[in-house]
Design goal:
heterodimer, A: alpha/beta, FAD/NAD(P)-binding domain, 2 domains, six-stranded mixed β-sheet, 30% helix, globular, B: mainly alpha, 67% helix, 0% strand, elongated, oxidoreductase (chain A), FAD (chain A), Putative succinate dehydrogenase, putative fumarate reductase, putative FAD requiring protein (chain A)
Chain lengths: 438, 358
Amino acid sequence: MPQPVPTSVLMDSRDVVVVGGGTAALCAAISARRKGATVTLLDQAPPDQRGGNTRHSRNLRIMHSAPSPLFPGSYDETDFHADLVKAAEGKGNEALGRILIRGSAELPDWLAAQGVVFQTIACGGLPWSRKTAFFLGGGKAMINTLYATAARLRIMVHHNCRVTTLAPDGQVSLNDENGGKRTIRARAVVVASGGYQANPVWLAERWGDDAAALVVRGTPFAAGDPLRALFDLGAASVGSPGACHLVAVDARLAEADGGIVTRVDGVELGMVIDRDGNRFEDETSITGPTRYAQWGRRVAALPGAIAHAVWDAEAIDRTPPAILEPIRADSLETLAGLLAIPVTTLAAAATASGRVNQPPFFTVPIRPGITFTCHGVRVDERARVVTPDGLPLGCLYAAGMIMAPNVIGTGYLAGAALTIGAVFGRIAGEEAANHALG
Amino acid sequence: MRLDDPHEEARRVLRLCNVCNYCNGYCEMFRAAERHRTFSDGELATLAHLCHNCRNCWQACQYAPPHPFAVNVPLVLAELRLLSQAELAWPRPLGHLGLLSLVVTLLPPLLVLLLVPIEVLFAAHAGPGAFYRVIPWSVMSLAAALPLGWSALALAVGLVRFWRAGGNSTGAEMRAAAPEAIRDAILLRNLDGGGAGCDDGNGPLSFRRKYAHHLVFAGFLLCLASTSVATVYHHLLGLEAPYPMLSLPVVLGSLGGVGLIAGSLGLLALKRGADPAPIAPAAQESGQLLLLQLLAMAASGLLLLALRDGPAMGILLALHLGTVLSFFVALPHGKFAHAPYRAAALLRAALERRNNER
């Protein structure tokens, strides 16, 4: 006879509990611990998938006044501020934005002090980037280092913990890996569990049936339970429900956690058609670093949220490398058969594009891939979660993507997510420790 | 998702690496792979030898198992290194290299026990030519020359094939790239892990493996220098071994022996307890065999030096000769072959890097 699982076991009693397992959570936990607090970190992922979406990241946006081994040029506060305001479309909180920008300048030294190694320009291999610093080996290497530092500092880390309920007085309820219900009492709680991009039920509130077509690009554990718990407590909301960052990904790689290698690129060399075989965009008009996101949004808006990129024999060799070979068809008739599209429609689209002439033809199916949601809790300048009246919600703090819309609205800025996680993670951790140690 | 054929698996993995690129700060392998859109078998062999097996990319990989993409770069490249060395060398490898090495090591002591009169073998010999009173110089030279010649042939044929399959180049390009390649080989720049140190599988990143390798390499070069100086003494100056304790051959050889022992023990210790996931078992065994051979060679040499004036000299000399012969026999098909192949791969990388910059 299996023992009945007790309804709630008191697992621990700590100064600070951190909910989440990515950059913001680790920076908060380490900062709180360095302030002298006892800290427990609760990550929903198993150990080999720890690190949230940081595992798939590579760089941080950093303000800095002069070129250095990490940066080929300078990026001052004015430049960063202009980029941030543009990305946020003016919807970011000005004071929090300034905190982010100024805090970013401290990050290379602070992270290096935690053992994190950056890739220098001298190392070779880096894309030219005036605005962002790159982790040597990428985000997972940094995450490994921060977990090792956390272990050295005797921060308790529990994986496979799904936090279900939070309370303003610091009580945290969770389901452990065996489905047992547990609670932890904390003097302060930092919620750094990201968005709900891996929760199709929640996404369906905005996206309807198409929510199921969104490919989760990052951690499959971002279900948003802690965010829901904060809303249930009356936390003020920022951003927009269901708003998210979307990217065009190869529909054949629909499993979660594909990261950056499933993106579809080079479509301006061919054409993109919807499921009925019609083009819907001048492919050559979408260029620059945001092209993946622009295509992601457009494909998400199509019927069935699917599209097909098509190249001809002459263009295919010029497309950037991809991890899967495209699907080959020796004639337009064969391609039309493969895609279940009338050949006349396909031929008309090919002719109109002017770029799809020479057989054989190649195609890749495209889905919108969801990176993160842009909907979270409002915080004040001390990273405290606040109610719509602007009052702190007990001893609850928030850092990372769960509060990112405070500074960036529903926009996107390369490398900003990690900077938000690290800057506000540090603030939340220190403030939570101060609160706990009173 | 892992493919059975190492070449196909390497193509699958490096294709993915080229899209991701996150590891290109770690070593030249990733930066060299980025210069290719497709990979011939020869190009793969070059890339495989650029990998110094530091395993940082394994720890950092967001697509490592249990991720369905199952990327394990060090493992597949280690498999390819073994495969390419076996396929390229001529004559082809002998089987059971470990057993063969043991037999060859023990053969000279057995033979001297059988063939040299006991009163000669276990007598105390002194003065110039003492060694050759137990084993004549001509026998010793022939015993060494045969396996060394065979091995040098296999290695040379393998290297030429390796170089030709790796790409095209002119003599001028090779000469221009050589200084960079020599620097990379001697400094082991690709064991720096991009400046952070390497993951030797035993905790935090460190330079332990690089330093231990430096010791082995320096020790080996010193022993080689000792032998070369002794050859000059013998043939040009007419001085016969054994040489005095403070002579150049003895000092060089002693320092080299100590370096070999310290470095080999260090590398063997680092292999113990390392995470097995990114390690090809056959490569691990081949590396261990070479380290044991180097240890045996250095230890028997130092022991011979210490006891050369006594009755054990004869049998120790035969044992030392056995360890050297065993090293020679295994040369082209064991771990030692990584040295010339890797040097060639570094030359190829330096050459392509230069061409790419132009």
